[in-house]
User: Fold this.
Amino acid sequence: MTEHAEVGRAAADAAERGLDVAFVPRTGEGPPADGTLGGVPIAKTVVVQRRDEFVFVIAPLRAQFSWPKLRALLGVNKLSLPDAAGAFAATGYERGTITPLGASTPWPVILDASLAGQRIALGSGSHAFGALVDADALVDAYAGSFAELSASQPDT
Assistant:
């Protein structure tokens, strides 16, 4: 694992914050068909831009979050998704590996409320590994928050 600099960066950041993380090898392309890694549900990390800063939004892999709820929570009328180059510049990680763990800038972290009390699998900064972490401990370590972000009906 030490040959993966991104995982090392994520591990060092987690350790500095006192966050217990297990790095698990990933196999194949894309997320596993059962939506778990090491028996733990996968949560996707999306980096969104509000004004001149970014926010990490973490939600269950197969869930859709509500853009109107997220905009209301962040107090803005407009949010956008950066392109691949913009996401890399904001986080230091490629799409598909984005995580707050060891990100180049410690942007705010918001987790969907449905993840509270769960152990979840996140990106690790590397396509070769996933990071298993307690969602509540992640929120504490990154001064993040839980919020009801799930879409109860299709957004317009």
In short: The chain has a mean pLDDT of 91. The first strand starts at residue 22 and ends at 25.
